[in-house]
Amino acid sequence: MIALIRRILGTSGKYKSRIKWAFVFSFLKGMMMKAPIMLSFLAITRFMAGTADAAFCGTLAAGMAVSLLLCVFFQHLADRLQAGAGFELFADKRMELGTHLRKMPMGYFTEGNIGRISSVLSSDMGFIEQNCMMVLADLMSYIFAEFIMVAFLFYLSPWMGLGALVILVFFLLVGKGMKKEAMEDSVKRQEQNGNLTDAVLDYIEGMGITKTYNLLGKRSKELTDNFDRMCSVSIDFEEAAAPWQRRMNLVYGLGTAAALALCLVLYMQGLLTASYLIGVMLFLFDLFNPIRMLYSQSTRLTVMSAALDRVENLFGEQELLDTGTARIPAAADAPEIEFKHVSFAYGDKEVLHDVSFSLPRNQMFALVGPSGGGKSTIANLLARFWDVNDGQVLIRGRDVREIPLSELMNHISMVFQRVYLFQDTIYNNISMGRPDATRKEVIEAAKKARCYDFIMALPNGFDTMVGEGGESLSGGEKQRISIARCILKDAPIVILDEATASVDADNESYIQQAISELCRGKTLLVIAHRLGTIQNADQILVVSGGGIAQSGSHDELIGTDGIYRTFVNVRQNSLGWSRQV
Ligand SMILES: Nc1ncnc2c1ncn2[C@@H]1O[C@H](COP(=O)(O)OP(=O)(O)OP(=O)(O)O)[C@@H](O)[C@H]1O
Q1: Complex-level ipTM beyond the 0.90 threshold
Q2: Where is the ABC transmembrane type-1 domain (predicted)?
Q3: What does residue 492 show for φ and ψ, rounded to 5 degrees?
């Protein structure tokens, strides 16, 4: 418990001193709570000695009233300091986690971690935020109350004090077993919570496919199974705690009886006077209540501890190093993009092996080749979504790892095949390409991306809200809005993952016009699927089997016997690289 309190203090940063002050007020509250018992003891001693007079009685009554008022006052201060600190602390932690996640390699988000991240951010952090400070306040007041009572008992009778300490050892032993069991179950419960979030996200994201393939029964079953598992681990968790709670109550009952017996034995042996006997009896029945209450919170504490583990683990995930300070030169003799002996593996699976190529400035390059050959991986390494295992990726002669990530991102625009629009206005979706752009510049970008006309036909024009993921727009319209965003950003390198899905002829021609605008005066690296795009490229890189199998212009490559010619011939007659321009 102390370890958990230390851990929370350790993570509380600038709120640490506020929390410590709250502990001071908790301690004072604990003192004031027990003050009436101590005053009563004083009264009994004076009455039995016959020295109590009217002035004493008046002072005693005033002392009782003041101690009760102070108790309420200190409680108020402790609660205010702790609860406020808790909510502010976790608002900061969420922001910190957001910044941390932004610096993680993209691979982290594609390896089944989305559910874990969501459940840490919502359920784990929410649980700690709501419980931690209030529980902490209770814990501290129980610990202080127990300490004050045992110390007072020692003052009344060292024998009674020692007896109380022995009984406390039994509480600690039962508490230890209780904590161990609850800890294991808490870990299982929080892990299942993450699995459930994963399953819910997966179910909702895949709803379209689920309906199309009529998989509602199967997919619902997976989700229901997860709900069932969550229910059973929660029941196990509560059931596992019940026997320990019973043991704790047993120790409480037997401990109080033993303390009472000891008190009577001491009185009969003449080791305790009558007034001290009454004094001890005054709070004997409350003596072990604080420690019992302390352990009744232990299940919440173990959940909190497991939740803290998960939060800390997420914070402990390795970020992409962003220590570079090199600037990308405005002009350089070096190629705009260069891969030097690059090798890269996703885990153990090597995808690129010793890949080298260089691309001059302001030209268009097409990456083509069989599915799974490594085209997207090349684009992702250029944008430093991952780091290479060997070799170097250079922009204008600078290794991307030496360039600050923010500068690198300012230098590169990406148009993904799967366009994502935020639940916001169309205007904001475009302007996030350059947040300081004027309205005129945003509209200009929309015109260049050939989306102005369809935007103006919408009920609220640029202020129309887009549904989650851009669902209320057609695929071609969404793609053009994402191109407008890139045009506004005006980065010197554009990476474009050409859509494989076919769109209607009108949309196709609008998208091609938008791409032409986007690429004016830029270096374009396009993962190309359409023969029209490939033929327009200044240079084609055929990516296959983890390397560059061929490179050259369309005319050069088509005249050579090799993988490119075979591909073009095959694809011309099939669905893949269509002849649409
Ligand atoms: N995040 C990832 N984790 C593990 N393996 C991956 C990951 N992304 C891609 N791969 C694997 O790396 C290989 C290269 O994938 P990549 O997406 O680069 O190929 P591609 O040529 O772009 O394919 P496509 O044309 O189908 O998009 C594939 O075998 C793929 O399964």
Answers
A1: yes
A2: 21-294
A3: -70, -25
DSSP 404-430: -HHHHHHHEEEE-SS----SSBHHHHH
Q: Dump pLDDT digits (tens) for 368-414.
A: 988 888 998 999 899 898 889 999 999 999 999 999 988 998 899 88
Going by CA atoms, what residue is nearest to atom 25 of ligand 1?
A: 371
Of the candidates 523, 532, 548, the one whose C-alpha atom is nearest the C-alpha of residue 498 is 532
Q: Work out the burial of residue 46: count CB atoms within 10 Å of its CB; fewer than 13 is exposed, 13-18 middle, 19 or more buried.
A: middle
- Residue among 342, 377, 416, 529 whose CB has most ligand 1 atoms within 8 A, to mutate: 377
Q: 421: Cβ–Cβ under 8 A, 6 or more apart, which residues?
A: 429, 466, 469, 470, 473, 478, 481, 482
Q: Domain 2-315 adopts which CATH fold? A: ABC transporter transmembrane region fold (1.20.1560)
Q: Is the CB of 371 under 6 A from ligand 1?
A: yes
Q: DSSP for 307-358?
A: HHHHHHHHHHSPPPP----PPPPSS-SS-SEEEEEEEEEETTEEEEEEEEEE
CA of 378 to the centre of ligand 1 (A): 10
C-beta neighbour count of 476 within 10 angstroms: 23
Sorted by where each begins, the domain ranges of the chain are 2-315
User: Residue 448 and residue 517: Cα distance in Å, rounded?
Assistant: 6
Q: Which atom of ligand 1 lies at the shortest distance from residue 529's CA?
A: 25
CB of 274 closer than 8 Å to CB of 161: no
Give CA–CA dist 442/440, Å, rounded: 5
Q: Does the beta carbon of 372 lie inside 6 Å of ligand 1?
A: yes
118 C-alpha to ligand 1 centroid (Å): 25
Is pTM, for the whole model, over 0.80?
A: no
- 374 CB near ligand 1 (under 6 Å): yes
